[in-house]
Write a structure and sequence with these properties.
Elements: E1 13-17, E2 23-28, E3 32-37, E4 42-48, E5 89-90, E6 112-118, E7 124-129, E8 136-144, E9 148-156, E10 162-164, E11 166-168, E12 171-173, E13 181-183, E14 189-192, E15 197-200, E16 212-216, E17 223-227, E18 232-239, E19 243-248, H1 250-256, E20 268-275, E21 281-283, E22 288-297
Antiparallel strand pairs: 1-2, 2-3, 3-4, 5-11, 6-7, 7-8, 8-9, 9-22, 10-21, 11-20, 12-20, 13-17, 14-15, 14-16, 16-19, 17-18, 18-22, 19-20
The chain binds 6-O-phosphono-beta-D-tagatofuranose.
Length: about 300
């Protein structure tokens, strides 16, 4: 296996020592700055540089718009802990599971970096692979430039069917959660985890004024987060995903999370793209599935 440093691209891809002494990969394109930890193949930062292409060094980023992704100031950075914020890669199950790590083991595993490349349009692509688990091959592509592109590809390498859930559990940074509007999910059926009941989303945009934890099913919709405080609209397009989760812990749950500040719920919302519950995926032997998410700012 090549060292991480062997994948560096001068001026674009640099390996650094990140929080907790974990290796981190810094990506600099003309349009954005991105940070990824091989621990969990976890994108921890994505920040656009503003309107015009800019080749300034990452250190000049103070003048750039607020990052699109939220990262908790209290996040742990240890080999046996998930990072709180950014884009946790959830696989092969979503949610709690007796005696096993919540949201699966992928986000707790060090993924192998197979390739880094500058694409013809100037964006940068990283190819990660989950160390073999004997049932499937999981490849994860992170493409950064004018937008953040994420793709998870699962291939069934067994001789029997393989069923799994997956999710890109993305934490978005917002100016003030109570002022945002989330659109695109109107009419979709959702499971409200707090009420343990199913509902259909009304016609109005979703506004948040309390803890929210909803899994929308059978939706391919593009979701937009309109943020008047940061004067931007974040767009989340997806393919190969039928579930969308909307989550904010609000006050009580924030206090119960040791790796999350008590007041941090005000600056974040999770809009997660995956295949969960009734939308879980079953692959026949040799079959593969691809889930893609593209995040940008309008
Ligand atoms: O995606 C929403 C959710 O399932 C919530 O129920 C909450 O548990 C959140 O994920 C965070 O889970 P984690 O295991 O990362 O603390």
């Amino acid at each position: 296996m090549k060292s991480l440093q062997a994948h560096e691209i001068p001026g674009h891809v640099t390996v650094t020592t990140g929080h907790g002494g974990l290796p981190a990969i810094q990506i600099n394109t003309d349009w954005s700055l991105t940070e990824v930890y091989p621990h969990g193949a976890h994108v921890t930062g994505f920040q656009l540089k503003g309107s015009a292409p800019d080749t300034r060094t990452p250190a000049d980023q103070t003048s750039y718009p607020a990052p699109l992704l939220f990262l908790s100031a209290a996040s742990e950075f240890h080999a046996d802990k998930p990072i709180r914020g950014g884009v946790p890669v959830i696989f092969p199950w979503f949610g709690p599971r007796d005696g096993m790590p919540a949201h699966g083991h992928a986000r707790l595993t060090d993924w192998e970096l197979l390739e880094t490349a500058v694409l013809p349009d100037g964006s940068i692509r990283l190819h990660f692979r989950l160390p073999s688990n004997g049932c499937c091959t999981v490849d994860y592509f992170v493409t950064t430039g004018r937008s953040l592109g994420l793709e998870m590809v699962v291939t069934n390498t067994r001789e029997t069917d393989y069923t799994f859930e997956n999710c890109l559990h993305t934490y978005f940074q917002v100016g003030a959660v109570e002022s945002i509007e989330i659109t695109g999910l109107q009419g979709a059926r959702y499971l409200d985890l707090l009420l343990a009941a199913e509902f259909t989303e009304s016609g109005d945009p979703i506004r948040i004024a309390a803890e929210i934890d909803r899994t929308y099913q059978n939706t391919r919709a593009t979701v937009e987060i309109s943020d008047p405080v940061l004067a931007r609209t974040i767009r989340i397009r997806k393919s190969g995903s039928l579930s969308t989760v909307v989550w904010n812990p609000w006050t009580a749950k924030s206090k119960r999370m040791p790796d999350f500040g008590d007041e941090e719920y005000r600056q974040m919302v999770c809009v997660e793209s995956g295949n969960i519950g009734e939308n879980a995926i079953t692959l026949a032997p040799g079959q593969r599935s691809s889930m893609k998410v593209e995040i940008d700012c309008l």
